Every structure is written in C-alpha cells, then in structure tokens.
Amino acid sequence: MIRLPESMERIWTMKAKGMREIEIAESLGISRQAVNKSLKEAKAKLFEAFFSLAETFSWEIVRVNAEKGFMVARGKCGGRATRVYAFYIPEKGIMAFFDNEIPEFVLQHALEFGIIKKPDKRELINALES
Predict the structure, then answer these.
(1) Is residue 1's pLDDT more than 70?
(2) Fewest Cβ atoms closer than 10 Å to its Cβ: which of 49, 76, 102, 125?
(3) 18 exposed, middle or buried (CB, 10 Å; 0-12, 13-18, 19+)?
C-alpha cells in the first residue's frame, strides 16, 4: 500500500486541511519553498498511486483530486457496474469503497479535510461527483 513519507504526509495533511503554505512553513520551521516542493511531490505520488490502482483493477477514472486525496472511478464488482471511491487516509494509505458503502471514519476524514460540511454519505458522494 502506498504511503507518503512521514514529513511529506504531515505537510500534505496540513495543506489539505486548509492551511496556507506560509503557515505550514512557519509552524514546521522550514522554508515556504520546501513546503511547496513537498506538496508538488506529494500530489505527483498520489496521482501516480490512484492511476496505478485504477489500472490494476481496470477501473475507469472519473475524477482525481490529489490536493484533497481522493479518486472517483467506475468499475465492476460481482459482474455489475459500480462506483469506486478511493481516499488517501493519513497513516493508513489508500482505501477504496464501492457505491455508498462508505464507513463512518471516512465521513469524519472528509469532514476534517473540508470535502464536506457535515458527516452525511449523500453529501460526500455529491461532493466527490461534482
């Protein structure tokens, strides 16, 4: 399972939760350029990971958002077409879920990362699909 290096993940997480690059740099005692470089590398690694996952399982990618760490894809499960929602979860890596079988901890993650405003599966799916 792909995991970003710890320091890169910390910077990416801070940015995904809404901090500005200069705020991240100040809080970590590093340059804004170092933050920017780390974020570019993190996004590239996440894009690569999501595309590799889709290729491995023959999913058709609908949308990838590396800044917030999610992918929407179309796939097959048990012979039927289904939606696949994959998320990069800090300290865990990428986790994928089918249709609306999204667990509570993913709703909390999406709330914390500003993807949704309240922990509601329908709101999350609408946000991911739009």
Answers:
(1) no
(2) 76
(3) exposed
